[in-house]
Amino acid sequence: MEIIISSEVKDLMSERGVAKEDVQAVIEKAEAEKTFLIAEDESILAKARLDNFCPYVAYEKDGETYTIKTVYAHRVLLGHEFE
What we know:
Layout: E1 2-5, H1 7-16, H2 20-33, E2 36-38, E3 44-47, E4 53-62, E5 65-75
Parallel strand pairs: 1-5
Antiparallel strand pairs: 2-3, 3-4, 4-5
């Protein structure tokens, strides 16, 4: 798996606290489970819950090469997790 990330997206990832390993985990999970959305422009949107962290990755796929378009994330805490 080759992941291509532009400097602009790397800056976004840094600002948003998303590591390259998180991006790879999201893509691997989405591709293995076929749990992603395909936009009209053929870009792919995938997400995964990694502990209390939920990253979203928009990417384009060409064989085993994944070009990251954008990344965002949020923290997740459910009611029972506060106890």
